[in-house]
Amino acid sequence: MSKTKVIHPDRDPAFATGAYSDGVVAGGFLFVSGQAAVDFKTSQFVRGTIEEETHRTLQNIKTILESVGATMDDVVKCTVHLADIAEFDRYNAVYASYFSGIKPARTTVQSVLAEELKVEIDCIVKLPA
């Protein structure tokens, strides 16, 4: 099986965030690693309200998808980590606005997140033919 590394197009090459790829294309799918409220142009985490962090996180995912010709409507599965599950309703309102039609399958859990972040989201995307 062949696979291709996908990098957020705004990522500063010096911004090292761990031993992983932003995304990997394999078998007609894009697997996007956990994304958070990061400004890839400045290499900084951007903390804010759950709504602000969810929006920035989903914008990062959207940018990665667009770099390989996909859209948010091509997302088939998301896994979401919230630092505080009590913020679920506020996060969910922003999350829902990014998907039209059939929403992706999703798992949402409470987790301890690095850098005092409030949300991290990874996803699986079926690439257009």
Automatic annotation (TrEMBL):
InterPro entries: RidA, RutC-like_sf, YjgF/YER057c/UK114. It comes from Larkinella arboricola. It comes from the Bacteria. GO terms for molecular function: deaminase activity. Transmembrane segments: none annotated. Pfam families: Ribonuc_L-PSP. GO terms for cellular component: cytosol. Belongs to the RutC family. PANTHER family: 2-IMINOBUTANOATE/2-IMINOPROPANOATE DEAMINASE RIDA (PTHR11803), PROTEIN HMF1-RELATED (PTHR11803:SF58). This is 2-iminobutanoate/2-iminopropanoate deaminase. CDD domains: YjgF_YER057c_UK114_family. Gene3D superfamilies: RutC-like.
